[in-house]
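note to self — DONT lose this again. spent like an hour looking for the file last time. sequence + predicted structure for the chain T wanted, 191 res
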Amino acid sequence: MSQFGDTPTIEELRIAAESGDRYAFWLYCAESLPALYRYMAHQCSVRDVCSQLVADFCHDAILKAADDLDRKATAGKKISVSLQWLKTIAYRVMLDYITRSGRWVSSTEVGDYYEDVEEDAELVEEVLKYFQWLRASEQEIIEQILVKKKTITEAADELGISEDASKRRYYRAIGHLRDFIREHGTVPIQL
């Protein structure tokens, strides 16, 4: 087989992949695929993305990871391989798909939704509770867009980041907030 003997552990594969062994990288991806697939299936269900796209997101993520690995190796940079790294790439592939297909709800629609439910103090209290669980950067972007009613571009300028980074940060923050509420909340809510 290779320097691993008959059955390499996933840790041996990870270490070899980080050392530049492309074959070990592909074996590592094959071993990680079931966990990656489950993670993306969950992410798609939470974001109401067609479950038939899960395999495509995983496939594209592994190809992007291989390209990233090649770029870093060529540049002489340290290579760090992990399941979390693959999950992050797959998640971003899904976000890119959602953004390209226009499946995100606009900030004005979300703002209108909150205006409709302002009278429900329990709901607002719960959203604010989980809002505090978000990272500071995620709180900032949500505040800029939903509270101060700024556009993605205006929020990007205010925070000193690119428009694409602002968009990704906003959608990621809304996703995290939605996850917190769904997992820990007591009041049913749709974000």
